[in-house]
Amino acid sequence: MEKLIAGAKKLGLQLNPRQIEQFSIYYQELIDWNQRMNLTAIIDYEEVQIKHFLDSLTVILAFPQPIKEDLHIIDIGTGAGLPGVPLKIVLPQIRLILLDATIKKAKFLHHLKQKLGLDDIEIVVGRAEEIAHQTQYRERFDIVLSRAVAGLPTLVELALPFCTIGGRFIAQKKAGVDSEISEAAKAIDTLGGRLRETKRINLEELGEERWLVIIEKILPTPS
Q: Is 16 exposed, middle or buried (0-12, 13-18, 19+ CB in 10 A)?
């Protein structure tokens, strides 16, 4: 896990032996289960370290500082557990919900949770636009995350209903982020959000332009 260890250090994260072991187990389980279901197109050992694990950890740069012990986080469209599970490994104190619409992927996540020995993780199966109307999830989260491949207007519509007032939605984006933000402006305003900042990720390991779009929740989302 040398690539991951070096990259994490640049993010201010010093991985301990237990965390390194957990990431190794994560990789092994991901590749094993990927032979039976479509979890990832990236299977190379070093590529998974960088493009899945390290890329997931970059969202920490957009967390409020200092990081609270009991942050309540939801990862929408988590798939193989990204970015939520890597964050849980390095920040074991957070309370995490992994949301995905696919039952098969949820089975993998339950298995992974057990193999990694992680607590305070709830795995929810369903569509974000439906789950967001359930009282126990609506406007309950300090941080909402999504690596889902969708335009920012769509992601904002799915994510902001989960954000508590004062919370934030963090979207991971590549080049062309300015045009996406312009297209999402109306949705952000309608759903009770406000663009806080866009933060460029300066990690040569990632190899291409990466951005974090940070949207604050300032008003309740209309029903």
A: exposed
- Per residue, what are the HEC states of the chain? CHHHHHHHHHCCCCCCHHHHHHHHHHHHHHHHHHCCCCCCCCCCHHHHHHHHHHHHHHHHHHCCCCCCCCCEEEEECCCCCCCHHHHHHHCCCCEEEEEECCHHHHHHHHHHHHHHCCCCEEEEECCHHHHCCCCCCCCCEEEEEECCCCCHHHHHHHHHHHEEEEEEEEEEECCCHHHHHHHHHHHHHHCCEEEEEEEEECCHHHCCCEEEEEEEECCCCCC
Asked whether residue 149 carries a pLDDT value surpassing 80, the answer given is no
Predicted model pTM: 0.95
Nearest-angstrom CA–CA distance, 220 and 160? 9
Identity (one letter) of the amino acid at 85? V
Taking the C-alpha atoms of residue 8 and residue 102, their distance in angstroms, rounded to an integer, is 30
Beta bridge partners of 146: 171
Query: What local confidence, expressed as pLDDT, does residue 77 receive?
Result: 95
User: Alpha-carbon distance 144 to 71, whole Å?
Assistant: 11
Long-range CB pairs of 198-202, under 8 A, 24+ apart, other chains included = 199/61, 199/62, 201/58, 201/61
Average pLDDT over residues 169-181: 92
Q: How many angstroms separate the CA atoms of 19 and 88, rounded?
A: 10
